[in-house]
Structures are given as structure tokens and as C-alpha cells.
Amino acid sequence: MANLLFGVDIGSKYTKVVVLEHGVKTRLVNGFLFPTQFKVGKDGDKQVDPELFIKAIGSFIPTESLRHAKIAVNLPPMSITALSVYLPLMSRKELSFTAINEAKQKMIPVSGPNHIFDCLFLGETMINKIPRAEVLVIRTEKFYVQRILDIFKSVEEFPVLISPASTILPNIVPKEAWKKDRAVVIVDIGASYLKISICSDAHMVFMRNIVFGLDDIIQDFSRQLSINAAGVEGIIKNHGIPDIPFEPKDKVAIAEEIMRQKYEASLASPTSSEAQVNLLELRLLWQPHIERIAQELRRSFVFYNERSEGRKIEQVFFTGGGSYIKNLRKILSSHVGGECLEVNPFAQIPHELSIDHKFKEEIASSAIFASAASLAFGIPLKKAAKQVQINFLPVELKQKEALAAKRMI
């Protein structure tokens, strides 16, 4: 009997859902997105509205499908702190305890009673010619996990995997990208966050979440162009980053050229009431945001190179809404070097989507569903003897899942 696997990526603006069917072969059977519905909680902070969330999913697929599926959900970026620690070789049980204890002392801000930890053994490495065990420790807070569980209470089906999508994304990077003494970078440019993950040997070893995203760029453009946010989104979708000759050093000359082009445009269509975007002006507005993204990438590269004793970074893979922006990858490649690529999480699996599927084009060609897809692919289908991924599912629910599997057998 085939299993339905749901990968749910809850974003600050949109929620992306990928549905896989795992049988003899894994195939994509559905994928959709919808605006994430929030409400103000008792403590005054914004959180997902469970009723509206399940209702939104039910508008695409029968809610009953959730009750017979395995579900994986991502943790929000602001809830995650990651740290790689290097320890003397010891047993796995001692290694986990020691790694978490060391991370508690080193993580910033200081760990408190509401924090919970999970860790993943990445392998053995040589540091100053001494063998060491490398362990990735992830910290989050209890109430973020509880909020995810609360969302699915109404369908009486709890997730089997609650994890940062960044730790699972390496699973959908092409296998040929993993080379000896080489690292891969995964950049997710979302609505509110810029997430940078550096991976080695198909494991995440370094992660940064920067509070900066597409919404900040849209707001800046809206203010400077005096166009509403919806209009700016349309401009970015249509033009991306204009591919025109551009030298940012001489801003006075650029401003004069923009004024000249606008004057000529007004002479060509003096009665036109439609606002026309000037491509040179648009390119100028993009420049500080490009420089900021490039700077954050370079800063991450330098930090990683110092810790990895010179491992080289040759490829940068893009996911999230930023993967839609025309020319972004090409321009960033010229700023930071290396090959900038887009992740297609469904390149190796068959599609079973109807011709009139609303998001068929996005699923087939874009990486916006990468996090949701990686979560679905990462769902544990068998009870492995050792942990293979970060999972903040409460212990009692893990035991319940194991007991249900035994009864079925």
C-alpha cells in the first residue's frame, strides 16, 4: 500500500505543501501554496491560526488525506540556533550528551529552561592531526514545537517529523555536487529571511538566518518609486534585475542618464497615464540589496573557511522566492564567484499532475517548493537503528509512532 507523505513549509508569507506518494517508486501527486493565516496569541505575538490553516489545506485536498498520511513540518527560522562542535571520539550516547552540554555553554543568546536540543553526528574529521567527532547541535524553543502540534490537533494526526528545513535541504541537492574537500552553499531568499546554509558531504555544517528578505526589498522600491507593494511585486516579476550595462561607481552620471531617459519617454508618449518603470533606475535601486546579499554570503564563506581548514566552495544553490528573480543568480555569481544554480527538487521523480494543475509550472521549474519537498523526502519510513536527521517531535509521540508500527507488523 502506498503512503502519502506531506511536506509542509510554513513561511512568513506563504505556506508551501508538497504531497508525495511512496510506493514501489516515489512520485509527486500534488503541490500547492496559500497565504499563511496568522492570529495574535495570548502573549501578543503573531502565530498561525490552526482553524484557517487546516481549512486552507482542505481547499486543495480532502482533509481526510491528512489523517492517513505522514506529515513533516519545518520550524520557523527565528526559532533556530545551530552550532557545530568538535569532540574527542567516544560512544554515540556520550557524544550526544557532551555535544549538547558544550553547545549550551557556547550558544548565543544564553540557553534557558524553555530551550530544547537535538544533535546529529556528522562524521570524523582531523583537526591539527588529531581525530575528532563533528556534531551538529540545533536549539529551538518548546512553544514553537507545541504550536506546530496544535495546528494538527483538529485532524487528529500529528507530524512524524518537526525539523528545520535547512538541515534536510542537502538531500535534494544533485549527488554530483558532493565532492571531496568541497562544500556547497544553499541560499533561501524568502519573504522575511535570508537563510544561508553551508553543507559538506550532504550534511549541513553551518547556518545563518538574517532578518532581511523580499518584503524589505519591495518596501524599499515602493517608497522610492511611489508605487504600492502589489505594483512593485509585478515589476520585479516582469523585469527582475534588468540586464543592462551598469557601473555603480558614478552615481551622478547614472542619475543624469535616468533623467534624460525619462524626459525622452515623456516626449514619446506625452498623453500616456500609465506609469512606466525606468530599467536603469530599477537597476540602481537593486544595487544596495545585491551588495548586502553578496556581503552576507562572503561573510559566511570566510567564517566557514577558517573553521574548515580551507575547504573550497564552488557551487551556490538557490531556493525560495528569490529563485524567481531574473538575473539574480548571474549577478551574484559575478560578486561572490563560483557557480550559482537553482535547485529543482523534482528533477529525478515522475510527476502525476493534471494538465490544469494551478501550480504545475512552478513545481516543474522553480525551487520555491524546495523546503517542502525536502521535508517530504526526509520523512522516516522505517525505524532506523540510528538517527539520521534532526527531529524535535516530542518523545512521547515518537514512542507512540514506534508502538503503532509494531502493532501493524
Descriptive keywords:
409 residues; alpha/beta; five-stranded mixed β-sheet; 27% strand; 15 strands
Separation of termini?
14 Å
DSSP summary: helix tally: 11
Q: Strand percentage, roughly? A: 25-35%
Q: Cα-atom Rg, whole angstroms?
A: 23 Å
- Categorize the overall geometry: globular
What assembly state would you assign to the polypeptide chains in this entry?
single chain
Give the H and E element order. EEEEEHEEHEEHEEEEHHHHEHEHHH
Largest sheet: 5 strands, mixed
Q: How many DSSP-defined strands?
A: 15
Question: Describe it for me?
Answer:
The structure is a single chain. The longest helix has 29 residues, at 279-307. It is globular and about 75 Å long. Mean pLDDT is 84; it is low at 271-275 and 402-409. The protein is α/β, with parallel strands linked by helices and 409 residues long. Strand 14, helix 8 (328-336) and strand 15 form a beta-alpha-beta unit. The relative contact order is 0.16. The chain has helices at 50-58, 92-106, 142-151, 214-225, 229-239, 251-268, 279-307, 328-336, 360-365, 370-377, 395-408; strands at 3-10, 14-22, 26-35, 38-40, 46-48, 69-74, 81-87, 115-127, 130-141, 161-163, 182-189, 194-200, 203-210, 312-319, 339-342. It has eleven helices and 15 strands. It starts with a strand and ends with a helix.
